[in-house]
Amino acid sequence: MNKQHTLYIERFRPDKLENYLCSNELREDAEKWIRENDIPHLLFAGSAGLGKSTLAKLLIKNLRCDSLIINASDENGIETIREKVKSFASCASFSPLKVVVLEEASYLTGPAQEALKAMIEDYSMTTRFILTANHLGKIVEPLRSRCDLYEFRGVSKAELAKHIVKYILEPENISYDNNNLVQLINTCYPDIRATVKHVQRCIKDNNLVFVPINDDLGKNIIDILKKPTSKSWSEIRQLIVNANLDDYQPIIEFLFNNLESFAKGKEAEITIELDNHQWFQKSVSDKEINIAALMSKILNILK
Predict the structure, then answer these.
(1) pLDDT digits (tens, 9 = 90+) for 152-197
(2) According to the 3-state scheme, what is the secondary structure of the chain?
(3) Residue 3: what pLDDT?
(4) Which of 20, 229, 237, 285 has the fewest CB atoms within 10 Å, i.e. is most exposed?
């Protein structure tokens, strides 16, 4: 816990394994890595918000190592690998280990991944690599084969709820009832990061009070869906942009819970689209494009 942060997502970012939420198998492996001060090359894959980057940063904080962290969504070219990564991997160090963390590694270009593959081989005696990726299919097979793959699938809703209570609500003396907590978990599951952010939004006067998606936003979207025109998509998109949302999942749930108010005999078709886009929402790189595409498909069904 870092009390200096007002944002819960940073304030309660785990810095020790004891307060990191993951499977027992992964915890046992991570404990071994820290105990032995050594790790294999690692590839953490899975949808956003499940703790991939958090574990990578937790490891380098608890290992006796020098580290380099690069976000490949910003620096994804071969120059980054040849200059920054090679320079770090090849230089002398007083630490027994060096670790390179490449976040969002699925954004690396093909040539960059090829260069990284060679670098993993050349510097494996002194340097380990941790790659995180939302899209495993975009990591080339030769690079995947050089890493131990861990696919993050999330924990159970019960485990997530217990974690929120133990490491956020109780330390902050936040009162809650189970119904509000269950609603909150259901809204964001399995995204841990989104859940923590939503917890902060739902705290009112030291009480956890479940706050669904802004009712005015949901009602305004439905009002447009009731009478679709050629301008409806642009109008809905503008509403969503103006709302400045971090998480679009509540929109999907709000529409599902209010299908009868706008679907009129097309509930089944729209439910299928809501389900499809809910699944995509967990893994797409641009969630705003995904929600805009969903609105376009709903409008086409209604027309």
Answers:
(1) 988 999 999 999 999 999 999 999 999 999 989 987 888 898 899 8
(2) CCCCCCCHHHHCCCCCHHHCCCCHHHHHHHHHHHHHCCCCCEEEECCCCCCHHHHHHHHHHHCCCEEEEEECCCCCCHHHHHHHHHHHHHCCCCCCCEEEEEECHHHCCHHHHHHHHHHHHHCCCCEEEEEEECCHHHCCHHHHCCCEEEECCCCCHHHHHHHHHHHHHCCCCCECCHHHHHHHHHHHCCCHHHHHHHHHHCEECCEECCCCCCHHHHHHHHHHHHCCCCCHHHHHHHHHHHHCCCCCHHHHHHHHHCHHHCCCCCHHHHHHHHHHHHHHHCCCCCHHHHHHHHHHHHHHHHC
(3) 64
(4) 229
